[in-house]
Fold these 2 entries.
Entry 1:
Amino acid sequence: MLDQLKVIIAKHLNNRVMETYNVASSLVVETPKDKEKGDVAIPSFALSKLLHKSPMELAPVIKGFLEELDYFERIEIVGPYVNAFYSRKKLIKIILDNFDNVDNKNSGTICIDYSSPNIAKNFSIGHLRSTILGEAIGNIYEKLGYKVVRIDHLGDFGTQFGKLIYAYLNWGDEETVKKDPINELVKLYVRFHKEAEANPSLDDKAREIFNKLEEGDEYYQKLWNEFKSASLEEFKRIYNILGVHFDEYSSEANASRHAKRVLSMLEEKSLLEIDDGATIVRIGDDMPPAIVRRTDGATLYITRDLEEVHRRYETYHFDQMLYVVGNEQKLYFNQLRRVLEKMDAPFASGIKHVNFGLILTGGKKMSTRSGNAVKLIDVLDESIKLALSHIDEKNPNLEDKEEIAKAVGVSAIIFNDLKNYRENDYEFNLEDATKFEGQTGPYIQYTSVRIGSILSQSSFDKNNISYDLLSQDHFFDIIKKLDCFYQEIEKCANEYAPNYLAKYLLQLSSLFNSFYTREKCLVSDIIERNTKLYLISLIKSRLDEGMKLLGMRIVDKM
Ligand code: ARG
């Protein structure tokens, strides 16, 4: 609201200049760095140039215009500046009256491609960031009024499936695979690579199987479908734990089947060239060309994405297509966008790679002791266990503590990720992330629980409160913080970066916690109690809303 207020003030000033001098001015309302200089300041130089009058002469005129607004307690002229101090009580009233005034009249469709794991592989910690970021960005855009389409683009295509089928048919056992599909398939895949090292002809066999699979061989298709549904089942189990949901599961294999269409579009635009047998699109001197068809006719990752993005545009008419994928695919998404520009695709400018950094342990890409990718499910289990041990320390007699530990442990991982700016790598420390104090998710959940427990002890009347009390510094600081909520959310949306909201929740929590060490809320004076309970209920509503947007769980005890 404070931000909108500055816009309202500027508008008023410019209208009054127009009425008085009949010129269109663009006076700006600044926020002085130094609080002593006022809440807002209006420099008069620009107007002085425009009207050929001295700033000394104009400052009193601006002051007069400001006085008409009735927002200010004090207005001072300091040289060419007009500095004004809000009347806190009026401001508080404006802020409280507009508490839920979010600009949610945005229209437009945002497609988000996130998570997008590869089938027949474990859901790794690497796909975690994409999943958590994509989900939060989706929630934030929805809050602002956009239509959001959540797409999980499954990596279900590639010669590796030829290898997998070969391995399964030669060394696999139906029953064992049925019991623990992903782990067994991963084992078979690893075995294939070992055996192929000694016997390279296996690669040709796998390739043959893959080609038949692509041509629609029924038996291979059936196996592939079984691998795929087993994987999907496992992924959905993880999404369920994380509280993540998708509108659509798309498929690389499906895109590959329709890739002829996009290849002929490229052909029509005369963008295709043959280079050493392969078909390429040249996209400028600053980037390597995009290979869109291999010598043997097979499609590539980019061919499938080119086809798929056209399908998505035809289906959803998106305004933006966000790809939440790691930094290592930066060049790739630049190429994708460049090819679409070359094709004059009407949606090319809406293509956005929402890139992100690595999760590290000890400064290196996170991996198990044996150097393998870490399984997300193990990390989730570990986090829930740690959350339970923290609960046991603080509140051993808590009812349903297993359930609460789940909500806390999972939210801890989500928050620990989202508090970092997405493009940066971050060190993963589960022990710290699950603590109830520090920059953690549980700290925010715990603050919300504390407020909830105070509120459960007494009701309050929000229409019978003291504005004098709210004007005191440590109350007013909280009100100002409550007020920037939507501003932070817009910043998150503009930069596709939920860390601003995460930081905001930390700051608001610590404002509450220091307030609460100073002030007793359940006092006998009714107006004072109403005022304090109302204020803390507003804090809780911001914290809960913020946690929901980040994809965290809200608990009522812990
Ligand atoms: N499956 C890919 C990977 O794990 C990510 C796919 C991202 N989405 C896309 N449309 N390219 O690297």
Entry 2:
Amino acid sequence: MKNNDNNNDNSDWMHGLYRLSDAQRRQIISDRFKLNDDKRELLARNASQLGNQLIENYLTDYRLPEGLVTNLVVNDKTYAVPVVTEEPSVVAAACNGARRVALSGGFFAPDAKRAMLGQVVLKNVADPDKLQDWLTSHETEILAVANAAHPSMQKRGGGAKKIRLRKIDPFVSVDLIIGVGEAMGANTVNTMAEAVAHYLKAHNYDVLTAILTNAAFMSLQSAACRVSFKNLATATMDGATVALRIADLSQLAQVDPYRAATHNKGIMNGIDALMIASGNDWRAIESGAYAYAAKTGRLKGISTWQISDDALVGRIELPLPVGTVGGSIGLNPMTRLNFKINDIQSAEELAKVAASLGLAQNLAALRALATSGIQAGHMQMQYRSLAVVVGAKDKEIPALVKKLKQMPQVSQAVAKKALQELRKDSTNDRRTTD
Ligand code: MEV
């Protein structure tokens, strides 16, 4: 391993790192790992005050590309959606899927209920039925305790609404159902759950933990679309055949957990990218999506595609407890800027757009899998990345990508050699013309 003195257990330098300024940390890291001037400068150049306020042991901001998904039509409104991703083909695929659906009328995403769930888990409950009776008679008081812990939420029409008991032997979960308005609400839910935990402790219940669940099954959002066969055709395959093959792939994701994982990953490519661009906790959304995908005890695709008359009908449903306020949303100027571009006004609207984007991403992936395979489209973008990695200048990239496309096998070494040849050829060309 390079530069890794840590293997010798020499980790003294890490001690108290969090107490230093970010500039001091960068200095220590730069010296310790013998960074050259360019790398030192890179760390310093990307550093921000905001980043330093947000996390501990802050070094610098790690940048990711932001791009625009165009022509995403949801409930008759056309969106241009900023998304953040490092995967080269994601934005191109999302635009492709969105455009095909737009040509057939766009996505429909219905209004959906939104609530979060906090759990206060108890141990050693001798008689859960007796506890149920006690909870029923104390429900008003418990909800008041929860709401007193975060009074502003009730003023905004949210707050703790209901409690329920779940027996999960050997534990019992007292679930709090909480409205969180425009926020994703993790802090609100956790604060309320902890307040109820204190109350239950004071009544001699043995509390194990109090925390929200990311299985946000009370914030399910769906979206659907109907794509005409003609908008699915390729140069070599007619639309009806493509549609049939997409429906088969959809079925495969329902019966094979191995395929379901990849099917859902493709959907989350788009949804995560929107979550990052909109300042949402994308790990929470991922976690909820996978919990929902496995709700039957077996992992399944969270979208389905079926043939209906002369069209392919797609449908998706997943938990989308998203927010347009709270967390880092108001802090990060890029997030605020992205909300200006996407013109999304509420958490409900964001959930509708996210579900639709996931379905658009899924359509593009399945159409590629059903026809030319995924690599054809992927490689075009991968070649561009490879060209950048081997040091091609902007004006050299198209020629290098063209050259790489003609090669039977491409690697970093091959790309490097191809770039050298390209440069040699253009020097020779210049000499000849001179
Ligand atoms: C790649 O990031 C995502 C896909 O594998 C999704 C899929 O297979 O459905 C293309």
